[in-house]
Amino acid sequence: MALEGDELEAFIRRIPKTETHLHIEGALPYDLLHGMDSGRFPANPHFRSPSYRYPGFVEFENILLDHAVVWFNSAERYHEACKVMFDRMVSLNIKYVETSFHLHMIEFIGVDGRDILSAIKSAVPKELEVKVIGGMVRNGYSEKMQPILDNLHSWEELDGIDLHGQEWLELENWTPPIWEKCREAGKIVKCHAGEFGGPNKVYEAIDTLGSRRIQHGVRSVEDKELVKRLAGEGAVLDVCPLSNEKLQVFPSLEDHSLRELVDAGVTCTISTDDPLCFSNDILDEYRALAARLGFTKAELAQFAKNGFEHSRLDGEAKRKFISEIDSLLVS
């Protein structure tokens, strides 16, 4: 069933939703920066315009870091930003979140990683379940970070790990042992792949790192055997459509691979990635999928259900939210 207008708006607001691909530094509420220094951070910077497209990943990364490091200079600043961010998620009827913080901020700002982690978790409201992921870059095994990264599996309060950043860099030898130890410790093991890198990076994520949670993965369609494998093995792609458009992974959203992935049986979830840079929220993502890619009410609901089905919520909570989605489908 096609959705439009008030019916679409009401439906996407009412369905319980998840965010499973979200970077804390990239989700810094921009109004916090504007309120701190309106001269340096104008109300409507050019890169947050709906029509703006980033020339490439490096330019995007530079803007993100140039803004994030101004704010995130202490554990307390993480708590303050996350309090605003999480409260807004509740208002959008988001119930479950997997969000990563950039582990290398430990080195940048000289704050203990466990203090940052505690500050994030202490900002979580009772209406929201949040799992915190430690994100690292492919060339980040510095003298300072080595002992930290090697011991992430022992951080009981850390829910998972992720490899992000410049995807075209080679996978270094230190990485697979960390993924293996964290997987054995029961943590979520993710990997950014198949965004600016091709299918070979997705193969690397699933075969070398043992990840079945792929962040993006949208270029998997360039290898039909890979798509069959993702579908057959039950891998999950945490897709961020508007991010892909803004970063010109595809010429436009209408050219996105999501429809092909879904039709091939690949499990996908929908998230926002870096709202600081893209000026988007989860409602914008669902609106765009309906209005510009023709996803139906049932398909939008399935994206939401996928997020819960593959979450770390307990079985009762999963069933509750999935049942609520099913009820809204027939109302």
Automatic annotation (TrEMBL):
Entry keyword Zinc: yes
Q: Where is the Adenosine deaminase domain?
A: 16-327
Instruction: Show the GO cellular component annotation of the record.
Output: cytosol
Q: Which family does it belong to?
A: Belongs to the metallo-dependent hydrolases superfamily. Adenosine and AMP deaminases family.
Its needed co-factors are:
Zn(2+)
Q: Enumerate the UniProt keywords alphabetically.
A: Hydrolase, Metal-binding, Zinc
Quote the SUPFAM superfamilies the UniProt record gives. Answer: Metallo-dependent hydrolases
Q: Which GO terms describe its biological process?
A: adenine catabolic process; hypoxanthine salvage
GO MF term set: adenine deaminase activity; metal ion binding
Q: Keyword Zinc, does the record have it? A: yes
Its ancestry begins with: Bacteria, Pseudomonadati, Verrucomicrobiota, Opitutia, Puniceicoccales
Question: What protein name does the entry list?
Answer: Adenosine deaminase
InterPro entries tied to this protein: A_deaminase_dom, Ado/ade_deaminase, Metal_Hydrolase
